[in-house]
Fold this protein.
Amino acid sequence: VLIARGRLEQVRLHELAGHTRVATAIVTIDDQRWYVVLVDVSSDPFFARGPMLAEVSGIARARTDLPVIVTGDFNTPTGSVWLEPFESSFTHAFATAGRGLAGTWPMPVPVLAIDHVWTSRGVQVVCARHRWTLLSDHLQLITDLVGPRAVGEPSSSASLPPAKARDL
């Protein structure tokens, strides 16, 4: 689910192999446009993640004209070789400005960081943290982001209020 205090445009759902879903949208908040990619990767441990995550990365890199946020349940732990397409193109929010332990699953004792927020270069990650919830077997990810300034724009660039990434 994507909810924004602003305008959602060009909302699309991409059905990938192995019950993997990706939703994309252009989100406008306070005159700042973002390309948002929501990811829900199959939890099947026998499903080959490499080609599918490369396809998700391609979807995320499709928009170079806007700041990009890629977030959701990747069901792939930090440090996995299958996340390399994201590591080479995006910044991992929790690795950059995370507070607390990185694990997001399973509740109540999360030991694996399988939920992620990635941002394109130029997006400032102010803070990334988790919040406990009884509504999911994952911790919620809360990330404070500031979009890149356009040339000639005043120094008070638009900021994205805390974004919540949860299971799709």
About this structure: Residues 122 and 148 are 5 Å apart (CA to CA).
